[in-house]
Amino acid sequence: MSHIRKIGVLTSGGDAPGMNAAIRAVVRTAMSEKLSVVGIGHGYQGLINKEFIPLYGHSVANIIQRGGTFLKTSRCPEFQTKEGLAQAYQNLQDEGVDALVVIGGDGTFRGALSLGSTYHYPIVGLPGTIDNDLFGTDYTIGYDTAINTVVEAVDKLRDTAGSHDNLFFVEVMGRDAGFIALNSGIGVGAEDILIPETVSDLDKLVAKLEYDQRKHKTSGIIIVAEGDELGGAKEVAEMVKERLPNYHMRVTILGHIQRGGSPTCADRVLASRLGYAGVKALLEGRSGVMIGQINNKIKETPFSKATKQHPQIQPEWLEVARVLAL
User: In sequence order, what are the residues at sequence separation of 6 or more whose Cβ sits closer than 8 angstroms to the Cβ of residue 179?
Assistant: First the structure.
């Protein structure tokens, strides 16, 4: 019989569409098991500041379609200190919170690992980040919405590019991972895609654009992940302009619009399924794990593994992108 009577839930790090759907799933699954639930405002910072919010069925009504996180989120360097961790744990004890569900990315799970291992505290994590860069799940909550946001924006840019014979360099999020750039780039039919995981060759890019010019192709889209080794879209465009001064070039940085917006159905379903599975895992005595989905099956990955390993870009997808851009 589980000793858990009250569960806490928080969102931490960067927001991602679908976080509200995950909170909703945690609350309603817990309620179905006759548990009490508290939300914690502003992530780990709220855990230290005692921002506890009682949650009920009506608290999470009409939020599944909303982007962002109604619990708010932040980054908390204080939680990385011994004193901050101790204060957070004491607050959980004082509030009578027996277990915790955290929703976020790599940094969120490192914090969860510290809290769980230091105090033997039951805690599970749900992968909520648009970057899709967590080991132990095929997709993270928010990723599908983000790439669809990029596709919608770039489709509109291509209309203008074609009308004015412009070459657009479009920067998307992805400081350390190129999943957004690669998949959205394939989805929009980009002329080239630059990502951190590969060696970007300026000579090849210029040669490709010269080839396009000879074919009388006067407009195009280059997708650049913000973490590419050549730099962001602005830097890459400047280097190309020096080599191809006759090209009409424009730079668009999509920025934080990629994080916002109503989550897609795929993100809502994924978040709902993971939230449900997270509560069930805690009640069955499992903790210290990230709840993910691989090949449409729920999988649990220890925080220690999820934070040390990262998913790899498959060479097949790189080849698909290269061939289809010819």
Answer: 131, 132, 133, 143, 311, 313
Range of the domain at 121: 6-142+263-306
What whole-number distance in Å separates Cα of residue 53 and Cα of residue 42? 11
Given a contact cutoff of 8 angstroms between Cβ atoms, the answer to whether 124 and 282 are in contact is: yes
Q: Do residues 169 and 241 share a domain?
A: yes
Show contacts of 54-58: CB within 8 Å, 24+ apart: 55/9, 55/23, 55/27, 56/27, 56/31, 57/27, 57/28, 57/31
Q: How far is CA 36 from the centre of its chain?
A: 28
Q: Quick one: 102 and 188 in the same domain? A: no
Q: Which CATH number covers residue 293?
A: 3.40.50.450
Kindly report whether the global pTM for this prediction surpasses the value 0.85.
yes
Looking at the structure, tell me whether residues 88 and 156 fall in a common domain: no
Instruction: Read off the pLDDT of residues 155-174 as tens digits, 9 standing for 90 and up.
Output: 999 988 888 888 899 999 98
- For the CA atoms of 179, 67, 97, 277, what is the dihedral angle to 10 degrees? -60
Give 31-84 pLDDT, tens digit per residue. 999 999 999 999 999 999 999 999 999 999 999 999 999 999 988 888 889 999
Q: Is 64 helix (H, G, I), strand (E, B) or coil?
A: coil
Alpha carbon of 294 to those of 65, 105, 137, 140, 285: distances in Å?
A: 24, 17, 5, 11, 22
For 173-226, the DSSP string reads S-SS--HHHHHHHHHHT-SEEE-TTS---HHHHHHHHHHHHHTT---EEEEEET
Domain end (from 259, 279, 314): 259
Q: Is 315 part of a structural domain of the chain?
A: no
Catalogue the active-site residues.
Answer: 131
pLDDT in tens, 230-259: 888 999 999 999 998 888 889 999 999 999
